[in-house]
Structure formats: C-alpha cells, structure tokens
Amino acid sequence: MIVNYLSLSVILFCLGLLGVISRRNVFTVFMSIELMLNAANLTFVALARLHESMDGHVLALMVMAVAAAEAALALAVVILLHKHKGNLDTNVFSLLRG
Q1: How far is the C-alpha of 13 from the C-alpha of 21, rounded, in Å?
Q2: Mapping DSSP to helix (H, G, I), strand (E, B) and coil, where does residue 50 land?
C-alpha cells in the first residue's frame, strides 16, 4: 500500500521537475514548484503513517505554510515585474541581480 503512495509521489515530483526545467512562463514554473512540494508532503505523510508517527504530518504542515508564504511573495514579485516589463518570461528575473 505504501508503495502506491510513494510511486505517486515520485511521479508528481518528476512532473514538477520537468515543468520547472522545460517551461519559460513564470506562473507555470511556480505551479511546478508547488507540485514538487505537494509530492514531498505526500511522501512525509505516507512514511508517517507507515511508522505510526505524527512527525511527518507536522513536517507536511510546516511545508504547506512555507509554500503559502513563498506563493504570496512570488506572486507579488511577478506582478511587479509584469508591471515593469510587460511579459512573464523567466528571463525577466535577470533584472533582480544587483
């Protein structure tokens, strides 16, 4: 049973990694990162259920909180860059270098 959850987690993580590597749109890259984080959460919860511990659930909750904060900050940066440059290509982030 745990093999099914871990297999699904690996598939989701690989899809997210493929999306991060192959896409140029900033929103698609952020959605792929969120998919990778959810795959990690699925692994944490599945392994916590296997070991009958709450540690994985707590860690998954913390990852969700960090992912929500990351999504809010990333959305603010994307909106400002879109206002400034007018496109959502990942090359826009080269402006952030100091």
Answers
A1: 12
A2: helix
Please state, in angstroms and as integers, the Cα–Cα distance from residue 73 to each residue in 16, 77, 78, following that order: 20, 6, 9
What is the rounded average pLDDT for all residues in the chain? 88
pLDDT one-digit tens code per residue, 26-48: 888 889 999 999 999 999 999 99
List the single range of 48-52, 67-71, 76-80, 94-98 with lowest mean pLDDT.
94-98
Non-local CB neighbours of 9 within 8 Å, separated by 6+ positions: 39, 40, 42, 43, 46
Q: How far is CA 80 from CA 1, 15, 87, 88, in A?
A: 45, 28, 11, 11
CATH of span 2-91: 1.10.287.3510
Q: Is 89 helix (H, G, I), strand (E, B) or coil?
A: strand
